[in-house]
Amino acid sequence: MSVLLSATGLGKEFRGPRRGAPTRVLRDVTLSVAEGEFVAVVGPSGSGKSTLLACLAGLEPATSGRVELAGIDLSTLGLSGLARHRRRTVSVIFQAYNLLPTLTVRENVELPARLAHRRPDERDVMSALDELGLLACADRLPSELSGGQQQRTAIARAIVAATPVLLADEPTGALDQANGRVVLERLAATAGARRAVLLVTHDLDAAARCDRVLVLRDGRLVNELVSPTSRQVFDAVAATT
Ligand SMILES: Nc1ncnc2c1ncn2[C@@H]1O[C@H](COP(=O)(O)OP(=O)(O)OP(=O)(O)O)[C@@H](O)[C@H]1O
What we know:
six-stranded mixed β-sheet, 27% strand, alpha/beta, globular
């Protein structure tokens, strides 16, 4: 199966506003996600999960090493080339949802297709809204939604965008158990449709639904579990603290 997303020796440092040592957040991270795979990244708070996701999405440049998205080394692209490549290849479900406040739920979900100059597929849009329990709020603005509804709108948008790679930061964070289950099933189905799905999560049951779980500690990948149980994920995370 073809690899859709990879990092090789990825390092990331942030420079503070003043002089002094930079903060090293990621160290020598090497991973790959093939089409059809559903992969989780877990680890303690501050271990670098969101930063890893931002580097994999091309939103943060790597300080060292390489990220390849759909076969292209992101460091070889200029700003506009990177924006174009990202639009075609990756959708991100952000922790903060990043919905456009002046667009309705339906318009937010249709936005990636419109930005790519495609007509949104109405059947896909409606079926995603239906499955995620959003039909009744399709014409509402994000400010008129609960946190969980906003999160599900962001998930519907990423699913409908149908890019080869989908990255999700805590996609079940604001959801109750039933909605969380629906979202995980939808993400698993998305991977099943030969896309690559990588999620960052503190939800160990969600991680246990994935094909593989990568464990991050202090910016390094320290463990990899294949089809683990929730207990195995719990033990692997506990071993990092
Ligand atoms: N833009 C930035 N500038 C400086 N430091 C940053 C920046 N972004 C993240 N960091 C630092 O990098 C470290 C890792 O942060 P990150 O958000 O990636 O961790 P995380 O594992 O996702 O945490 P959580 O589970 O709490 O969301 C933290 O110490 C954080 O303060």
